[in-house]
Specification:
With 337 residues, this protein is of the alpha/beta class. It is built from 13 helices and 16 strands. The chain has 2 domains: 142 residues, ornithine cyclodeaminase, domain 1; 171 residues, Rossmann fold. Helix 3 packs across helix 5. It catalyses: L-alanine + NAD(+) + H2O = pyruvate + NH4(+) + NADH + H(+).
């Protein structure tokens, strides 16, 4: 490998500590969406390594930890690292903390040197939105102008930020049991989009629908959806979670991010475990579509579903953008001794 091609931004034998404020400033969706698409392509082209996500379940705390290592190589760059992330749904009410938090160690593939340790909470939200945008770009109708969002938590914000990069979104319908969260979302985006509160069915009638809830009892039926709605099923990230009724999964063109993860902990994990669906119901992995080994949307009508569990390759691709964008005066530095 040529050092000129794969060189990192700084070679000073110092590890940069990157807080969330620097990540927010460093990550532009216009840069992140194509980087995440490149990560899916690398995974499909076998130039990425990503062991299965491992879990530590803590039912006594209504939460869990996940470890997510990855390495990927594209035509222009390579990157590696590992993310340690938690999901604790009670955090907002009990500790005034986000449900999902994480820390990422970004490393030099050639030497193994830890180039940066960065807060991965904001990073996770950003790359999750970007993954939905990549799927939307390949699976939604070209002129999609309406976006429905079910779940007005922190993940909902990056869904709109990212998807509006790939489709001309004008109107947004947001649905949540918490009226205050809906109002905060409307206040945030009301000057840029036509945003209103709505029911699940009203959100699901939009051209694109993103579901970002932690539910275990499905909330979206086949009847709720429009005739050409593309659904980004983002909320199911552990065994037992399911946002879409099984009939939606069976009837839609189903695209997944990774077979092992989705069958274990994605939107399809429940009907997969009960035998209600099988491999014949899965039409493609997103990476196959990105590189042209499988078709994206082919018809103006028909429902499409993207089952997203979140992949370590996405985190590492996003971390590279953060690291490459940092100046010498960003973050804090630790010198290796």
């Amino acid at each position: 490998m040529s050092n000129s091609l794969y060189s990192t931004a700084r070679q000073d034998n110092q590890t940069t500590i990157v807080p969330s404020t620097d990540i927010e400033a460093a990550v532009e969706m216009a840069d992140l969406v194509p980087a995440i698409e490149a990560a899916f392509a690398a995974y499909e082209n076998d130039t990425a390594q990503m062991p299965p996500k491992s879990y530590i379940d803590l039912p006594q705390h209504n939460g869990d930890f996940r470890s997510m290592p990855a390495y990927l190589e594209t035509d222009d760059w390579e990157a590696s690292g590992i993310k340690w992330v938690n999901v604790h749904p009670d955090n907002p009410d009990e500790f005034d903390l986000p449900t999902v938090m994480g820390t990422l160690v970004y490393t030099d593939p050639e030497s193994g040197f830890p180039l940066a340790v960065m807060d991965a909470t904001t990073l996770t939200m950003k790359r999750t939105g970007a993954a939905a945008a990549v799927a939307t770009d390949h699976l939604a109708v070209e002129d999609a102008s309406s976006l429905g969002i079910i779940g007005a938590g922190v993940q909902s914000y990056t869904q709109l930020e990212a998807i509006s990069q790939v489709r001309p979104i004008e109107s947004v319908v947001v649905s949540d049991l918490d009226d205050d969260r809906v109002q905060r979302f409307i206040d945030t985006f009301g000057d840029e989009f036509d945003v209103r509160a709505g029911t699940i069915s009203e959100a699901a009638q939009c051209d694109v629908l993103s579901t970002v809830t932690p539910v275990e009892d499905p909330i979206v039926t086949l009847e709720d959806l429009g005739e050409h709605t593309h659904v980004n099923a983002m909320g199911a990230d552990a065994e037992g979670k399911q946002e879409l009724h099984t009939e939606v999964i069976r009837e839609a063109t189903l695209v997944i991010d990774d077979f092992e993860q989705t069958t274990h902990s994605g939107e399809i994990n429940v009907p997969w475990s009960t035998g209600e669906i099988d491999e014949s119901d899965i039409d493609a992995e997103l990476g196959e579509i990105v590189v042209g080994n499988a078709p994206g949307r082919e018809d103006l009508s028909g429902i499409t579903v993207f089952d997203s569990t979140g992949l370590a390759i996405q985190d590492i691709a996003a971390a590279r953008i953060v690291y490459e964008s940092l100046g010498d005066d960003s973050g804090y530095r630790l010198e290796m001794v």
